[in-house]
């Protein structure tokens, strides 16, 4: 395959971000778009010269695409991945890949059995800082993890509804949860406490919390905490810090800090993670090499499991325990 023909289901800001990035890749050919909002679909179609389809099914059955970027909100995913898999259409599914864990697991099994190339929206794995940190941590024992996702409330109305977004941990902070899994390993236990502190003053009908603290342990024995908040208009943070007995690693976007007995390193590295994510997906489709993708659909489902478990813990007050998966050790 020389060029990969790409369609988009969902034409919001994330889809447009992918479109702009894919335009930089010679092997990507943008062909088709569908959105539940016909006006938005028409706007994107005209702006980027894409054929507009009136349904996801029509787009998937059009014969104009080899791969599809699924950029709909998590509550609007019914049947899309399954249809793509049945048609042999490769897919990149934006995070989170749903709000129902069993449904996501079922989709993951079908995708794997279909043999299509699959990727997900966990783009931070492609950061140069993350890759360098992962290489540094090889063979080292992380004892403590500190993670943060603090910022303001997105303007999208559905984000404020728990049954549509899953809350900030599922919809946004999931990136940091995924980095913990990628760099340190699988979770063993989570215990969460959420509150609504400011959100109801602005949006009385909101059902998501706007602050949360999650404590956790990993299968390795490491322990950690995660602070998540979407009420902070004057301060933002999205770090992951990893601490061992003789080292400290901090990832702050493209910035990497490593301190140990031999170095005190501070680096600002490449931030083109979306470009690298899409480059890897396109090349995987072209060559049939799934291993080029750093976070497939199955990995996205594993991260979803952690965030939904934290929500369950916050609702019930119980600590949620995960069974160890020998295949992921």
Automatic annotation (TrEMBL):
Pfam families: GFO_IDH_MocA (PF01408), GFO_IDH_MocA_C3 (PF22725). Its EC number is 1.1.1.370. It comes from Paenibacillus allorhizosphaerae. It comes from the Bacteria. InterPro entries: Gfo/Idh/MocA-like_OxRdtase_N (IPR000683), Gfo/Idh/MocA_Oxidoreductases (IPR051450), GFO_IDH_MocA-like_dom (IPR055170). This is Scyllo-inositol 2-dehydrogenase (NAD(+)). The lineage of its organism: Bacteria, Bacillati, Bacillota, Bacilli, Bacillales. The gene is iolX_6. Keywords: Oxidoreductase. Residues 4-120 form the Gfo/Idh/MocA-like oxidoreductase N-terminal domain. GO terms for molecular function: oxidoreductase activity. Residues 148-245 form the GFO/IDH/MocA-like oxidoreductase domain.
């Amino acid at each position: 395959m020389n060029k990969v023909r790409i369609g988009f289901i969902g034409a919001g800001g994330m889809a447009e971000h992918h479109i702009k990035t894919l335009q930089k890749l010679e092997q990507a050919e943008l062909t088709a778009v569908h959105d539940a909002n016909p006006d938005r679909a028409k706007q994107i179609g005209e702006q980027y010269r894409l054929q507009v389809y009136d349904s996801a099914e029509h787009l998937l059955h059009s014969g104009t695409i080899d791969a599809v970027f699924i950029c709909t909100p998590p509550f609007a995913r019914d049947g899309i991945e399954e249809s793509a898999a049945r048609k042999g259409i490769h897919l990149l599914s934006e995070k989170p890949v749903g709000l129902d864990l069993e449904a996501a697991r079922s989709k993951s099994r079908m995708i794997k059995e279909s043999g299509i190339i699959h990727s997900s929206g966990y783009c931070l794995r492609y950061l140069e800082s993350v890759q360098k940190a992962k290489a540094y941590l090889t063979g080292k024992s992380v004892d403590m993890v500190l993670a943060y996702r603090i910022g303001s409330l997105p303007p999208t109305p559905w984000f404020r509804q728990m049954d549509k977004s899953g809350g900030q941990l599922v919809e946004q902070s999931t990136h940091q949860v995924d980095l913990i899994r990628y760099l340190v390993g699988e979770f063993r236990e989570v215990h969460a406490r959420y509150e609504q502190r400011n959100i109801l003053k602005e949006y009385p009908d909101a059902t998501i919390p706007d602050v949360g603290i999650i404590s956790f342990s990993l299968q390795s024995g490491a322990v950690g905490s995660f602070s998540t908040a979407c009420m902070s208009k004057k301060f933002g943070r999205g770090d992951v810090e990893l601490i061992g007995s003789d080292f400290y690693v901090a990832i702050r976007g493209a910035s990497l800090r490593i301190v140990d007995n031999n170095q005190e390193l501070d680096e600002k590295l490449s931030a083109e993670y979306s470009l690298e994510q899409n480059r890897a997906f396109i090349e995987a489709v072209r060559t049939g090499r799934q291993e080029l993708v750093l976070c497939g659909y199955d990995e996205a489902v594993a991260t979803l499991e952690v965030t939904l478990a934290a929500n369950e813990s916050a609702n019930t007050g119980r600590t949620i325990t995960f069974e160890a998966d020998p295949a992921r050790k």
